[in-house]
Specification:
alpha+beta; Glutaredoxin; Glutathione S-transferase Yfyf (Class Pi), Chain A, domain 2; 9% strand; globular
Length: 190
């Protein structure tokens, strides 16, 4: 049975989970949730997540969702951690299971997501990715937010830092992130 991910590609947190699933090469079904129609507040969805937030991952009898009623980051990070652990033998090793030092580095950078880009610029001057010379969850968790940031006048925050810009160009050109980015569009008014 394929995994089911409830959410919308335009949701930063749903897209984060989708990139993780694609990086791991895991088949899944994306089940769109009509937020504008209030589907997430109806009993069938509330049975999956009583906090009425997306994303929600179903894997057989297991349903994953966060415990916060305000932010989706908890949901998607719990989901990506679960996927990275469960499917550790396939796709990209996002946790670095074979190297304790690299695994610790991934965890450190996951906790530092709110650091200023100047810190990233310094780090990326000596490594290709945030946790080392390998793509990991530390990088994956930045994709959705940065994707939308790059469509704003503040894209210069990335573009003015050559190492951060090179890092962004690398992670945003991965097949999994490109696949998810195709659905991360906001309908433009005509």
């Amino acid at each position: 049975m394929a995994l089911k991910l409830y959410g919308l590609p335009i949701s930063i947190c749903t897209s984060r989970a989708m990139v993780c699933l694609h990086e791991k090469g895991v088949d899944f079904e994306l089940v769109p949730v009509n937020l504008f129609g209030g589907e997430h507040k109806q009993p069938p969805f509330l049975a999956k997540n009583p906090f009425a937030k997306i994303p929600v991952l179903e894997d057989g009898d297991l349903t994953l969702f966060g415990l916060t009623a305000f932010l989706c980051a908890t949901e998607s990070r719990a989901i990506t951690s679960y996927i990275a652990e469960k499917f550790k033998e396939t796709g990209t090793d996002l946790i670095r299971h074979q190297n304790l030092n690299e695994a610790a580095s991934v965890k450190v950078w996951l906790e530092k997501l709110e650091k200023v880009l100047d810190v990233y610029e310094s780090k990326l001057s000596s490594t290709k990715y945030l946790a080392g010379d390998f793509f990991s969850l530390a990088d994956l968790h930045h994709h959705a937010y940065t994707h939308f940031l790059m469509k704003t006048p503040w894209a210069s925050l990335i573009n003015d830092r050559p190492h951060v810009k090179a890092w962004w160009e690398d992670i945003s050109s991965r097949p999994a992130t490109k696949k998810v980015a195709e659905g991360m569009t906001i309908a433009e008014k005509k």
